[in-house]
Amino acid sequence: MNKGSDSKMKQKKFWRWFSWSLIAIVILAAGAGAYYHYQYLPNHPQATKKVALNEQQAEETFSQNKQNQKNYPSRFDHDVPSKLTKADTKKIAGILNRSQFVGTALIVRNNKIIYQRGFGYADKAAGRKNNAKSLFQIASIQKSMTATLLMQLVDEGKVKFSDPISKYYPSIPHGNKITIRMMLDMHSGLFPGKAPTTMLTDKELVKYAVKHIKVHSINLHSYQPINYTLLSGIIERKTGKTYHDLIQTEFLDPLHLGHTGFMDTFDKEKDRTRAYEAIDPLNYYKKVQTENYVQYNNQLGTGNVYTSVGDLFKIEQAITQGKIIPKSSVNKLRDTNGGQYGGGVYNFTDYFSSHGVEGGYDSGLTLSKDGENGVVLLSNHKPLTTTMILSQQLYQIMLNETK
To answer: Bias regions of kind Polar residues — which residues (predicted)?
Structure first.
């Protein structure tokens, strides 16, 4: 065989090899794409439809929130210079700054705003500073809203505190020994299994939680958000409405909340904050901390709401003053004392506190039981001292001025 023929033969072999390799790459790519589609989008082939529906619902919810903001101006919409003494004003700023607090602080005395201002940046890259309208994920503080919705069902006779969880979720181990009251107060012994990694509907999320649930030490306190996810499932089942719709009709609409919504619309809000990881005491804004839509979605009833300090005060004030459920029902719901958790908050003799941490956000509040006095701290950078403890410290400073 001459050199020319040998060269042509090698070229044919090369192109044959190249063609088959290209086909193999295309097949592998298609396979990988299919795997991703099945693995990361839920319930194929309805996944694309579901994601599109979620996006549509998010857009509709966002549009409604925008309308609410236009219709519902609030006395909490602007920063308010301190009406405390100069000494106490300086003391409060010192406490917050030493704790590396970044966020917005609100103090209300006798139902009047006496202090409202921002600390640090809402979005450092954009040059936006925190202020009265800044929005934050409130995380577990949301549980007081969920507990209130559950209490409505108790008042209507549709649910009892003494109901065993087996009545609603028969497959949960030892469910006949676990009551609704235990779940409200974090004494159920329920622990979550692995978290979902794909988008699920509320019903699917509850079903997933039940399937992977674990039970340990019934009737001993252990703070586990899964309790409130399961309570949300009961609320939806008994009312025939979605959790989102109930929050809208029971809180957002009657309280005229223009700065509150669900985290699936958070990124669209012009007053949204960005959470920063607390990794460098010399640079609070070194790294943005993020969550994805699936993580938000997993927090049903327990941590997927955002709001402002003013709206949050209005929510908690309305609950404790009996504007959502009767005052007597609030007392039944929050029947613990001495700082024990009960009905979504930590209860003390004359006041209650609440705390939430999620995705770089740290939220805390302390309100008097008559709802006339309170401190709300919402932070987008985890402080050295939790916002709940800080709110209690500021609450005492405010009260001491009135003595």
So the answer is: 58-72
Q: How far apart are CA 95 and CA 385, in angstroms?
A: 10
pLDDT digits (tens, 9 = 90+) for 306-365: 999 999 999 999 999 999 999 999 999 999 999 999 999 999 999 999 999 999 999 999
Question: How would DSSP label each residue in 246-272?
Answer: HHIIIIITTTT-SS-EEGGGGGG-TTB
Mean local confidence (pLDDT), 370-388: 98
- 341-379 burial: b if 16+ Cβ within 10 Å, else e: bbbbbbbbeebbbbbbbbbbbbbbbbbbbebebbbbbbb
- Which residue from 402, 358, 397 is spatially nearest to 378, judged by alpha carbons? 358
DSSP codes, 311-338: HHHHHHHHHHTTSSS-HHHHHHHT---T
CATH of the domain at 325: 3.40.710.10
CA distance 104 to 361: 12
d(CA 67, CA 69): 5
Domain count, the chain: 1
Domain coverage including residue 390: 53-142+242-401
pLDDT over 90 at 102, yes or no:
yes
> Which pTM was predicted?
0.84
Local structure of 114: helix, strand or coil: strand
Q: Judge whether 215 lies within some domain.
A: no
Cis peptide before 45 (omega within 30 of 0): yes
Considering only the C-alpha atoms of the chain, give the largest distance between any 2 of them, rounded to a whole number of Å.
110
- Asked whether residue 160 is assigned to any structural domain, the reply reads no
153-185 pLDDT, tens digit each: 999 999 999 999 999 999 999 999 999 999 999
How far apart, in Å, do the first and last CA atoms of the chain sit?
A: 110
Give the per-residue pLDDT at 40.
33
Closest CA to 51 of 246, 197, 201: 201
The verdict on residue 383 lying in a domain is yes
Rounded to the nearest integer, the mean pLDDT of the chain is 88
Q: What one-character DSSP code corresponds to residue 385? A: S
What's the confidence (pLDDT) of residue 95?
A: 98
What is the predicted pLDDT for the residue at 225? 96
The answer to whether residue 34 is domain-embedded is no
